[in-house]
Amino acid sequence: MAAKWVGRCPDCGTWGTVNEVAVLSTVHGAAVRRAVAPASPAVPISSIDPGATRHFHTGISELDRVLGGGLVPGSVTLLAGDPGVGKSTLLLEVAHRWAETGRRALYLSGEESAGQIRLRAERTGCSHDEVFLAAESDLQTALGHIEAVQPSLVVVDSVQTMSTAEVDGVTGGVTQVRAVTTALTMAAKTTGVAMLLVGHVTKDGAIAGPRSLEHLVDVVLHFEGDRASALRMVRGVKNRFGAADEVGCFLLHDNGIECVADPSGLFLDQRPAPVPGTAVTVTLDGKRPLIGEVQALIGSASTGSPRRAVSGIDSSRAAMITAVLEKRAHLSVGSYDIYLSTVGGMRLTDPSSDLAVALAIASAYADIPMPATAVAIGEVGLAGDLRRVTGMDRRLSEAARLGFTSAIVPPGVKDGPAGLRLLNADNIGGALRVLREIADNKG
Q: CATH: 3.30.230.10, 3.40.1160.10, 3.30.470.20, 3.40.50.10070. Which one for 266-440?
């Protein structure tokens, strides 16, 4: 740095390489920057029309439930899920229902040809003249399709297969995915088109690509399902236009996908009479109460390390409940092989299912069947105490709606819906006594 012009660089000795650079004036060490007039002035929040973010129904009730009422013009929604779970089938159904209302939809596929999508449309009954297809993986060409078709809904399947020549990096890489998502988001905001993006996931279940991808979009949905089951769930992770903890249930068939408005029956085992080792609980998936059944089987006593096989329940929590039963309820179950499972592929991660797991194990150990008209809701502590869980009113209302007549609940739960008898238990020992009483009285 020199205070005045010099023709020759004092360091390398080269002539004509020293350039003059203006230095910003500073006040107390901070650079002084001039204010720039904004393109649009700030306005009072009360003067903004809330109708600009009105939801438009997709025609699929369970998806509208998760979205908060439907798709908002100019919004960008990211739907991520495992390969083959049914993302393309669901979004093709969305495009078809959208076109049936007289609106135009554009389906951009970077993974399949237009012929393949046409075959799926024929199989699922999603052929409509207002659904336009284009097999395209170049971003600029895809934006050209949007400008030419003038749709109100655009489906991009998938964002990881799109690429642009304006930035470096391989297709699906961090740089490419960020650039493509930014361009598509800008197109949605400027044209008012509702944009649906399909996203890939890693083997750990996280959305592939940069973490900023989830910050760029307005709504993030996870599409979940087990290949061994037809049940599929769309779970809200982020939603700028509604609640972010809603869950939608679907059934995937060969001829398409259908909504399941009342999925509780899918998680109950149908049998003519109750058998030992089963207990029913009510879990909350987001804001949605779901009935779930826990099944337990006590094997033979093991001389070595007893076996613990768990499906649909957290294994560490099941081990904790087993220890509580042995220490606090004095049931010698620790030396036996224990097998735990849920019905219908349901996953019980809510602590409210602790009491049902404990009663199922105790029922299998004592060979006492729990009545089919009773549910158990509550968290089990290490001291053997029972604790209340959130959303108890919704859980009890769902149990009463499905015909259950009694509920074993923690202390402090006093008010229940009509027709549902509340049986309070202070601890796990009290819950086992209540179980024996209702078993003797047949519920």
A: 3.30.230.10
